[in-house]
Amino acid sequence: MLTASISLRDVGRRFGATRALADVDLDLKPGVIGLLGPNGAGKTTLLRLLATALPPTQGQVSVLGLDPEVPAERTGIRRQLGYLPQEVGFPRGFTAFAFVDYIALLKEWTEPAARHAEVRRVLDLVGLSDLGPKRIRAMSGGQRRRVALAQALLGSPLVLILDEPTTGVDPEQRVTLRTVLAEIARTSIVVLSTHQTEDVAALCERVIVLDRGRVRYDGPVTDLVGQAAGRVWLADEPDPAASVSWRTGTGRYRNVGVHARDGVEHVEPSLEDAYLLLRGGSPESKPAEEVAS
Amino acid sequence: MTGWHLDDDILRRYVERADSLAEGTSVEQHLLSCEQCRGRVNAAVDVVDLAAVWDRTRDTVEVPRPSVFERLLRVAGLPAHEARLVAVASAFRGVWLVGVAAILAFAALAAAVGHARGMWLFLAVAPIVPCLVVASSYDPWMDPALEPELVTPYPALRLILLRTIAVLALALPAVLFLGLFVPGEAPFAWLLPAVGFVAVVLAASTWVSPLRSAIAVSSVWLGVVWLLAARSGSPDAVLQARAQAGFLALAAGSFGIFLVRRRWLRQLRPGR
User: Which of A7, A162, B56, B192 could form a disulfide with A192 if both were Cys (CB 3.0 to 4.6 A apart)?
Assistant: First the structure.
């Protein structure tokens, strides 16, 4: 009997001289775990390690109590694994149904009737039940992303690894997907990386923040948001005391910083504020518009 | 209720729709209030499994028709699901195959008409055709879905070897056929180098991308042939038993390395 658990001990990964991941210690249980971090922080590397797509160069990874470096055990993991890579290409001329059907074949669904029923079930889950016969190349970006997600959901895996699942997906569909993932996470470990802090806030009970290959924060979302209490305030001008500030839709500036001055107008922090605070407002994490230093 | 129930005769007429309008109406009136008779109607009617009908209908619309090549593989005895796995490889699609075949045909034609450099051209091109098509059958650039493919329980080694064998089964006879038009012994000189290069590509793809390794191997081979042509003016050097044995050793050694290092195959993924 496999137990839905993942553990990483002192895990690191190098690519040549570049260290993508270092000293990662994690224990994951069923639930939705969000992975946040700037580009190049090691999110994709960590997800690929969990998805058995990449071996670590240091430390021990254990998925469902099995060792991904032992071939037989790796196959055991893969029978219970759904993986959505950051970029999925589709063979030319394939329809949504044909693609998911093909991956189902590789996932050992050899009996046609059962396989077709399963393919329909996952296409239904991602809201594409009517688009099965449509060619993927003729689909929108968000629809393609959902086709890719559908293949990860095949067979209701115990471990679901999703690298930026909501990229290009419209808000209504994002809400639908959250419902689907929350349901799966009752019994499965769902690890997802994203740049959308609102997805994490709405879906994850636990968040891991990566920065330059190291874990900067690992804990409940509420605790992370709590760290930003009293450190977010509105002002008419960008505040020099803030580490990040930006102009909001109302024309006022939202300031995030460790040391707020007295008498400022505090507002309720969001997860995004807390994330920016944790990142210390280093340049690559700043919002695109009107960043004051 | 009344204690009265439909008799068997009326029930049969109703089910077979042989009843009159009046009789049918009164039967239906009775059925509305009598659970027992409703049960008897249910039992008497062949229940159509609507779900199954619906699934069959959707299958007709949604399930893709197998390609000609896939059907060919099935005829050749491959199980349906493995035929699909092989046929998906982009190498069997479109311009790529046509392009490679055209170059090869041109080389064979040049050799066949007795052009001095034609035979050299054929010798240069023929061995690299199989390794280029094998590489493209599992290169992330040609098979964009490779990353999700390789983390399924289906063994990566089996997937790659299956595609390799299928590709060779297609490419080797084609090259062999074209070789028949080439005069002299050269038509078969390419066979062992070809096998050797395919093995080198398999082994090298545990480090770098298959297509890159195939291009590297091809470049080296073109250089060697060019040197030979410039120096000796005769392809005998390749035909010699020692050279042929060398290619055989290259094939065996590379294939060994490939098997030993096969766990690194899963790192194949689209480049950024």
Answer: A162
Task: Indicate whether B16 belongs to any domain.
Answer: yes
Q: State how far residue B102 is from chain A, nearest Cα, in angstroms.
A: 22
Q: What is the ipTM of this complex?
A: 0.75
Suggest the residue from A79, A102, A160 to mutate for an interface test with chain B (most B CBs closer than 10 A). A102
User: Chain B partners of A54 at a C-beta cutoff of 8 Å?
Assistant: 266-267
Does B22 lie in the same domain as B116?
no
Q: What is the pLDDT of residue B143?
A: 72
> Is pLDDT at A82 greater than 90 in this prediction?
yes
State the pLDDT at residue B236: 67
Nearest chain B residue to A104 by CA: give it: B152
Mean pLDDT, residues A82-87 taken together: 92
More confident residue, A92 or B27: B27
Is B147 found in the same domain as B58?
no
Of B137, B2, B58, B212, the residue nearest A121 (C-alpha): B58
> Does B151 sit within 8 Å of A103, measured CB to CB?
no
Residues of B with CB under 8 A from a CB of A: 55, 58-59, 61-64, 79-81, 84-85, 88, 90, 93-94, 143-155, 159, 263, 266-267, 269-270
Computed over every residue of chain A, the mean pLDDT equals 87
B231 and B215 co-located in one domain: yes
B152/A103 CB distance under 8 A? yes
Q: CA of A264: how far to CAs of A198, A281, B64, in Å?
A: 26, 20, 63
Q: What are phi and psi of A207, to 5 degrees?
A: -130, 140
**What domain range is B46 assigned to?**
8-62
Instruction: Tell whether the model's pLDDT for residue A281 goes beyond 60.
Output: no
Q: Positive or negative CA dihedral for B271, A45, A164, A245? A: negative
CB A71 to CB B143 under 8 A?
A: no
Whether B1 is covered by a domain: the verdict is no
Do B123 and B153 lie in one domain? The reply is: yes
Judged against a pLDDT cut of 60, whether residue B1 lies above it is answered with no
Average pLDDT score, chain B? 80
Is residue A181 within 8 A of residue A203, CB to CB? The reply is yes
**Among residues A155, A2, A185, which one has the least CA distance to residue A76?**
A2
Contact check, Cβ <8 Å, B144/A88? yes
Answer whether residue B242 is part of any domain: yes
Span B92-118, mean pLDDT?
71
Tell me, what's the pLDDT at B185?
Answer: 62
User: With 60 as the cut, is the pLDDT of residue A291 above it?
Assistant: no
The predicted-structure confidence for A177-187, as pLDDT tens digits, reads as follows: 899 999 999 99
Cβ contacts from A onto B, under 8 A: 103
DSSP E strands, chain A: 6-15, 18-28, 31-36, 58-63, 81-84, 159-163, 189-193, 206-211, 214-220, 232-235, 244-247, 253-256, 265-266
B207 domain-assigned: yes
